[in-house]
User: Fold this.
Amino acid sequence: MSSYLNQGYLDIEDITVPTEERFAKGAVAVIECVQNIPCNPCTDACPRKAITIEGSINNIPNIDFDLCNGCGICVAQCPGLAIFLIDKTFGEETATIGMPYEFLPLPEKGEEVTLLDRAGNECGRGRVTNVRNTKAMDRTPVVFLEVDKDAAMRVRFFRRDSK
Amino acid sequence: MRLDQHPILSFDRGKPITFTFDGKPVNANEGESIAAALHAAGYKTLSHSLKLGRPRGFFCAIGKCSSCMMQVNGIPNVKTCMVLAEEGMDVRTQHGWGELKNKPSSRTYPRREMPLLETDVAVVGAGPAGLSAAIYASKFGAKVLVFEENTKVGGQLIKQTHMFFGSRDHHAGVRGIDIGDKLISQLGDNVEIMTETPVVGYYAPGELAVIRDHRLHRVRAKKIIVATGASENMLALPNNDLPGVYGAGAVQTLMNVYGVLPGKRMLMVGAGNIGVIVAYQALQAGVDVAAVVEALPVIGAYQVHASKLRRCGVPILTRHTIQTTWGDGQVEGATIVRLDDNWRQIPGTEQDIACDTICLSVGLKPTVEIFFQAGCSMAKIPELGGDIPIRNEFMETSVEGLYVAGDASSIEEASSAMLEGRLAGLDAVEKLKGSSDELQELKNHVKESLDELRAGPFGEKIRQGEKKLQEEASRL
Assistant:
């Protein structure tokens, strides 16, 4: 039995991760959707047709990491909020993670936040580098966090400090 | 407890009004149901059980559970979740069965002709299935009347803030709240929707009784499509009638339709898609979610839904159930307990959780009374939700001209409900107005889409149920 069926979140082994070589070229989308569910808006979202679902709509999406240019449009379009934009070229020691964030109030650029992993456990502090929230994103803003490079595939959410 | 901001929704609060509850003034806004307005004012107890006088709050918030019945302007047994608050209304707690004051004696009771409404197609229920049926029946020339008991059109879509799955053809990627508007915009000129008009009976052949403006009306229709949806299951546990125990749909109604918080801290029971989605929506509204408990060893919800809740820090406890809930007049907490592999509670694993809200998401049951009354051949198929009318591949029941669509025919996603509605609407209009290549093509396309949606592992249960249903149908 896959552990996500019991724990509700994916282990890193469940996820198709881009190579370090690809990461070195810039931002790239990582799709954390591994179950056969009837859903395909991600394939329509990608302007470069990097995301495909072959055959049945129930098949899982494949992403061509070389075609993906890291535009991030798919992040706000995925109904499962399961796509993350990883940029390991952001800084010497740091990467950014773009993640869907459907909560209010939105964090502010420059704000420091507590980082959370897939299980909601705290894993250090990070900084908000950008908040993308256009009309086309239809109320699914994407928040970009600067994190330690080695945390880029671990951090998936954050908590704002209570004021 | 009214929300002033929400990440997805904006609440158009109506004009401020005041009504009285047992003589005390309550501030409300136009457009709020009496029950929602009372909730916002902090009153969760709406009625009392008849024998023991135990306090009751509403469970369903869509007019099905009857635990919100109160006396309104002297009229007893008013479902306050379905009636909008009005300025100066006199709302009172009802004691006992309720009595109509100033009832005319039978001798003076006025005899009136029942108004008659005639149409090609009558649709019962303006949710995703009913609206889809109306769109497609009208598209090919049928005059359609849609009857909806609620004040709002869209059924359960009006509280679904999340983006839907499926493909673009089934409005995937669009939020449920916006799909209702899309469907309404597709309705032809030959469709009329009557809200606050419950259907109370079927009379052969092809007649319905409906109540409109407090008056019984007859409806004569050549075809009838029933899309009455479903009601939420209760869970047997001590004190499950305490105010503060809600069905998941009721929590959605409060939070997402009226912008009223159900409470401050919630325990969710059931980790299927609905349980996990509503727990996430509660977080979005600012409710603290203590945990989700699930008796099964696995999470039934899609992994992506479970993941987005887990990363917010909400535990999902499989092989756990709620043992009891307690509180003085309303929910103050719950005890959860671990289950062993034989579903027995493991002594010593009890854990108390402080919460003022318990949300039950333990399955749905099709609303099928009208089919029983019509004399449809019924089948009990657990995979599809329980008792359902036996139907053919185009959703027609054993009573000719009477169709079923949506959750009333099998508990599934809204995307399948819309496709079933299209199918019923197309078949009904084909029999009334004749066929065409375009109509046949559409019918085939809808059937293929439906099969495709059910093709994956999450459609397994539905496929098994469909198979049983076909076996039952072949025996007729």
In short: The radius of gyration of chain B is 23 Å. Chain B touches chain A through 43 residues (CB under 8 Å). Chain B has a mean pLDDT of 95. The longest helix of chain B spans residues 414-433.
